[in-house]
Amino acid sequence: MSILDSVSKIVKDNFGKKEKSVVAIDFGISSVKVIQLRNEKGLAVLETYGELACGPYGDLAVGQSSNLPPEKIFELVSDLFREANITAKVGAIAVPSRTSLIVSIGIPEMEESKLAEVVPIEARKYIPVPISEVILDWWVVPKNAQENEAEKNRKVEAGGQDGTSADQKYGKKVEVLIASIHKDVIRAYQDLSTKLGLEVDSFEIETFSAIRAVMPNDLSATVIFDIGAGTSKISIVDYGIVRLSHTINKGSQDITVSISKSLNIPFGKAEEIKRRYGLVGDIEKGDLVESISPTVEYIFAEANKVMLTYQRERSRAVDKMILIGGGALLKGILETAKSIVSVPVVVGLPFDKVETPAFLNSVLKESGPEFAVAIGLALRKLEDL
């Protein structure tokens, strides 16, 4: 599903012992997650997993976003590898959405050789740095019969009063999905992996990793909604392809801030209260639901707007919304989402894609949404072994 195959083979080394285990690293702004999987007779088997908060490494509270310097990131990941007992020697790193870009554009239909020249030029309109400083990948999104019919109807409506079609007026267009990652980001991750003694030859934008972990094997239009610490990311996957990627500039950290201000308590204490109570019940000092509901409702209202716009513009119904990310663990958030979003809402279960010990089933079901990116990336890396 990823469109960054050109990135994932940057430093490929085909020599050495055949590995069975891989580790995937997911860098969030408030925590770092790791997953280690093993290929056992064609099955992906969970060996270990873990998470560490970034805040304490920057003298901040747990749950607080932190822009750590390289030496602190190395210290954090080293501690995480030790605590989670990571033993794999090869791995993959997820590239955060905040340091990458996914955009869908429409351009005039032309030969593929000419598209290779035109796409980088068009991409400059969306990428805020020189094209020479990014790794750019793209593909033409194929249309199926249903989409062709819907597009034909839209073009007839957009045609002129003289009976001309939109194609005649404006020319045929193709949809192109573009993804880019800044080269400095890849270099920083390569430096880190070298210090860790880890062979990393796969890099993938987190959106594609998350989709692999929770997307059902069908062609329905599905919203993957990643509620992170600082932002919430909505991706619409339709016919197995990412058709839209949008960021909402609020996340679970904003909920903690709301509690902190409402109850006049430090961020760390507010984070503890959020994780304990969520959107259910009151607390001694006040009504927690009243404090955080506006933030949660805003996040889902914005997601619903994006989804409804997609349905209207594509003449295509969205089947459901799947919640992932740390924010999806908040008690009562599923019920709130269902009351706002106009399609069925479920919580992602990425651990269902791997073999796990039976005694961990309940624990992994609860923590699963937070590890969607890491699991999806590890599954991708296992395919390379």
**Major sheet attributes:** 5 strands, mixed
**Count of domain modules:** 1
Q: Say how many strands there are.
A: 13
- Beta-strand level of the residues, as a percent range? 25-35%
Number of helices: 13
Helix content: 25-40%
Instruction: Please name the CATH architecture.
Output: 2-Layer Sandwich
General shape: globular
- The CATH topology: Nucleotidyltransferase, domain 5
Order of helices and strands: HEEEHEEHEHHEHEHEEEHHHEHEHH
Assembly state (oligomeric):
single chain
Can you identify the CATH class?
A: Alpha Beta
Distance between the termini: 18 Å
Order of strands, main sheet, comes to 3-2-1-4-8
Give the radius of gyration: 22 Å
Class derived from helix and strand content: alpha/beta
Description:
- By secondary structure, the chain is α/β, with parallel strands linked by helices.
- The chain has one domain (5-140, 172-256, 289-382): Nucleotidyltransferase, domain 5 (2-Layer Sandwich), CATH 3.30.420.380.
- The chain is 39% helix and 26% strand.
- The protein contains 13 helices and 13 strands.
- Strands 3-2-1-4-8 form a five-stranded mixed sheet, with helices on both faces.
- Helix 8 (252-263) crosses helix 9 (267-277).
- Residues 6-16 and 162-170 have low confidence and may be disordered.
